[in-house]
Specification:
By secondary structure, this protein is of the alpha/beta class. The chain folds into two domains: 79-309, ABC transporter type 1, transmembrane domain (ABC transporter transmembrane region fold); 328-547, 3-Layer(aba) Sandwich (Rossmann fold). It is 63% helix and 10% strand.
């Protein structure tokens, strides 16, 4: 509710216009009971057709005006929510794309996905219908006041019925909300299990994991079914009580009002009009119950989104070198992952002169990929500095710096889209001839020539619908688009066949010939023959650095 009030206060003119429109809508709501009262008290009594025509024309005009005010109010309420909803969506997208990688990694992927879903929950809740429901409720007191003018006793009965309806609806919603939170967690666990099974279908079949899956699956489905049934039962009970409350209020109004009619204290028309007003007030007020339920969900969603909004972001400003020659220097760099007993690096220092090639070797877990991510700025050193031509990379604009690097990660992933779209992220207007040259250099052209849709082939599931070797070729092509001065290749020949490896060797030779600075993370003997420096991460705590003038990489 606070968020809704805040949004209204952000647009005070629109908020005032919404309130004014609601006031007139409420006044026009009085037309129907007044019409009934006048028909029964005047026309039925005297039978003058002119009275009927006049009253009917006035009623039709009131219906038309109410329709106009409702349409205008809905449009204004939509405007109130549109900008905040759009801004929230962009902010969450900004977090995903600009939050510092290490803090973001502390959130599990299912939790990040759930946060993205929260945006839709907020957008669905803070819409025109919710605004209209919230502002209609207090104006229902005006309808009660009119009933009071007709009969104070009937107004008391109507108000009592509304309060009981609100209370029973609140009880049901409160219980449903608690169960709904449990259902969300159980569904999240089930989705995680489903996702792991789908991503490892061969493992399920080859190692007989079906029994394991079946046991967990059956337990999770049973819990979800029980929880859903409980929520459904509470919702049905709550709705039944709310509807019954409206009927009971009418029953008591007619029962008490009839005695007043007999006593001559109330007319029949006034009794029916009072019941119409009470029903409308009851309806407008009890609509707060489902709206309050949705507002509660939206509040929790905003709270979860706020946790991600507090994540540190990469700076959106920084400097750019006029000319970058390709020199890289690590000065006393230390890095450790949170929760790890030992650091990956304690005091790492080395220099890569422009136009040279360095290989980084090491067993699994020694920090090869971590070092690559430090170079890319995806991770930040705990201490020390990484310099590019004697400038700390932390002072550089990250988008500019990453365009200086031809980067091929160890585990490439892609977004849902065509192959062309995934390759040219950094240069959507890339010249077609240059693109074809890149495709040939990365040895992905033969695959595309055989694919039915070529570059327009759709990638799904982060590219996992393609063989590993093709994914690595596409990753290499994507990196080459930058034509950066530094080349960072993380296990470039892994999962490649002989043709793919030869293409990598040739490409590295070509890049060295044009003066690129190469950092390659590999234990491939043929690659090690072509570098000038080897950084051995197997030696701890101070990695060994070997400098030797070695020949360039050969593909034979």
């Amino acid at each position: 509710m606070k968020e809704l009030i805040f949004r209204l206060f952000k647009r005070p003119v629109l908020a005032a216009e919404i309130l004014i429109s609601t006031f007139f809508i409420t006044l026009l709501t009085l037309a129907m009971p007044l019409y009934v009262i006048q028909i029964l008290n005047r026309y039925v009594t005297y039978g003058f057709h002119g009275t009927l025509i006049t009253l009917t024309a006035g009623m039709l005009m009131a219906v038309f005006l109410q329709l106009v005010f409702r349409i205008l109010r809905t449009k204004m309420a939509t405007i109130v929510n549109q900008a905040p909803n759009d801004r929230l969506s962009l902010e969450v997208l900004d977090i995903i794309s600009r939050a510092k990688a290490e803090p973001l990694d502390q959130f599990s992927k299912p939790r990040i996905q759930e946060t993205l879903n929260h945006v839709q929950t907020v957008q669905k809740t803070y819409d025109a219908q919710t605004v209209n429901t919230v502002v209609d409720a207090p104006f229902s007191l005006l309808l009660i006041a009119v009933i009071y003018l007709l009969s104070p006793l009937l107004s008391g009965l109507a108000l009592t019925g509304i309060m009981i309806g609100l209370f029973t609806g609140w009880l049901g919603t409160r219980q449903s909300q608690q169960d709904a939170e449990q259902l969300v967690m159980e569904n999240a666990r089930h989705r995680a299990m489903t996702s792991s099974a789908v991503n490892a279908l061969d493992t399920v079949r080859a190692f007989g994991a079906a029994a394991f899956l079946h046991k967990i699956w059956q337990d999770q489905v049973a819990k979800i079914s029980r929880r859903q049934k409980k929520i459904t039962d509470f919702k049905e009970i709550s709705q039944t009580l709310t509807l019954s409350g409206s009927s009971l209020t009418s029953v008591f109004l007619y029962a008490v009002g009839a005695t007043l009619v007999v006593q001559g204290k109330l007319t029949v028309g006034a009794l029916i009009g009072a019941n119409i007003l009470a029903s409308r007030a009851y309806q407008n007020t009890t609509r707060l119950v489902p709206a309050g339920y949705m507002l509660g969900k939206a509040k929790k969603a905003l709270r979860d989104i706020a946790l991600m909004q507090r994540l540190p972001m990469e700076p959106d400003s920084g400097s750019a070198l006029r000319v970058y020659k390709g020199r890289v220097e690590f000065q006393d760099v230390g890095f450790a992952y949170p929760g790890m007993a030992h650091p990956v690096f304690e005091s790492l220092s080395f220099t890569i002169p422009p136009g040279t090639a360095m290989a980084v070797v090491g067993q699994n877990g020694t920090g090869k990929t971590t070092l690559a991510k430090l170079l890319m700025g995806l991770l930040e050193p705990r201490r020390g500095s990484i310099l590019a031509d004697d400038v700390n990379v932390q002072q550089l604009a990250w988008p500019w710096w990453r365009k200086q690097i031809i980067y091929m990660p160890q585990e490439p992933s892609f977004l849902t889209g065509t192959i062309r779209e995934n390759i040219v992220f950094l240069d959507p207007d890339l010249d077609e001839a240059l693109l074809n040259h890149i495709l040939r250099a990365s040895d992905v052209k033969p695959f595309l020539d055989q694919a039915t849709n070529g570059l327009d082939t759709l990638l799904t599931d982060n590219g996992k619908n393609l063989p590993p070797g093709i994914r690595r070729r596409l990753s290499l092509a994507r990196g080459l688009v930058t034509n950066g001065q530094i080349v960072v290749l993380d296990e470039p020949t892994d999962a490649l066949d002989e043709t793919g490896r030869l293409a990598v060797y040739k490409l590295m030779n070509d890049l060295m010939k044009v003066g690129k600075t190469i950092v390659v993370f590999s234990n491939d003997p043929k690659i090690l023959k072509g570098v000038t420096t080897v950084l051995n991460l197997n030696i701890k705590p101070a990695p060994e650095i070997i400098h030797k003038p070695l020949p360039e990489v050969k593909g034979d």
